[in-house]
Give the backbone structure.
Amino acid sequence: MRRIGFPGFLILLLIVPALGQDLSSFIADTLWIHFPVDSTPSTTLQIKDFRQLPPNILAIKEVKKWKYIPVDQYVALNQPLTGLLQYYLHKDTVRFDGTLIIDHLNYWNDKAPFFAKGEKLNGYSRLLDSSGNVIRAWQWEFRFKPKKKQTPAERYVQMTETWIQAQETALRQNLLPDRLSPYRYRRQLVSWLDYIILPDGYILNAHLILDYPSDQQAAFVRGSPGIYYRKSAIHESIAIGGMDQQWYYRLNDRFVARLNATLRFGLNNFNSGKFDHVDFQNILLINLGFSAALEYRPVYYRGVIFGLGLHQSLNIMPEIVQRYEAGLLFTIGVILP
């Protein structure tokens, strides 16, 4: 091993302290978000922040520094989140005796829905009376598409202002006891299987989503690449992944309507007893799938879900099967909060 000479040792003594001072800026990055708040007024509504983050940190996200090095980015406010919310509630004359608890805020980039990619804000807050009893709880989900030339700081301001305005509206509503979720706010596991009966066979399409609950919404969008298997008398197909998107519309407390659109890429295998020769391009599977179903999916539910609907496929490849295929769809699945 080559020894470090005395001059080299002196250089290390000079470099290491300098690196120590700048190490935090190298490992982490800070994005400052400024709101025009001069002071925090006193109000009868107390606000407490129960998030597992420092009071003035909105989020911690992974970004690329110098385009290649992944680092944590701290999205920081120029004051605590509770002070910011209290200022705007007081400014807009929101008056209520009690305690508002901020349990959860998550700013993230949802890439799963093919037609609805973008930034999302998910959150949960509770309102307590003077005795500490929960009067009402709210679940938030907002989706934002970045505007042209909009900076990251401007996007965070927009998302936070939207959440504050929604909280104001909720506090102004009639404060009667509301239906509350029996589960603490967290991601839920939703898995389901679509079984599609076709004139010459069947399709199995399995999905798995780990996402935030959506029971508070009248309509919501999800994306979930699945495992697709198609069986007929002359061939079978398989595809993993795909650009799969679901639009959900709540009809009542028990049922939702689901619309589904999918673009799939996969492989085909043909029955050698039916074909002497198959062109090479027919090995590829490229198709579009559409379905509409009615699902049993109650609000704040844990357990089995099921549904019934219609399916339509457009087969681009292979060329030697029916171009259009219609079928009857049956859905069975489970929700685990």
